[in-house]
């Protein structure tokens, strides 16, 4: 039996434990709610996290690196960025996957035919952590940019109301060198 077969066979147990680790950064009340409430609208955090880790797990089992991994990670990282987690807390669930699999499969991972596959899988998880860091920092940057733009807009309105008048420079309105940004 290959590592992939073992990971598919143990998927439910692994995902359940991985979901627990992903929720470990939340207070106990939040964890309980996120686990019990299955409605995606009543519980967007739990739903997005659960669906995200399952999609990530499925992509990790594929032979070739998927271009979908960053998208699945981004959905989880957007939530964690808004909730103002540190990068280490936001990403802590990713290396937890390796620990869960080691606990679940134990000495099977040491078998020669499985050990090589395990090394490849571990490197995929390590790569996932780097992609997660990128997704988290990009989400934080977009959030920061949004906050800065909101402050600028408010300041401009206050100055106009005070009669001082202030126009946001052209390049800040999405126009550079006299041409509108279409990106």
What features would you describe in this structure?
The structure is a single chain. The longest helix has 50 residues, at 112-161. The chain has one domain (3-146). The chain is elongated, with a radius of gyration of 22 Å. The N and C termini lie far apart (49 Å). Helix content is 70%, strand content 2%. The protein contains eight helices and two strands. 19% of the residues are buried. The mean pLDDT is 89. Helix 4 packs antiparallel against helix 5 (69-82) and helix 7 (93-105) runs antiparallel to helix 8 (112-161). The protein is mostly helical and 183 residues long. A two-stranded antiparallel ribbon has the order 1-2.
Write a brief caption for the model.
By secondary structure, this protein is an all-alpha fold.
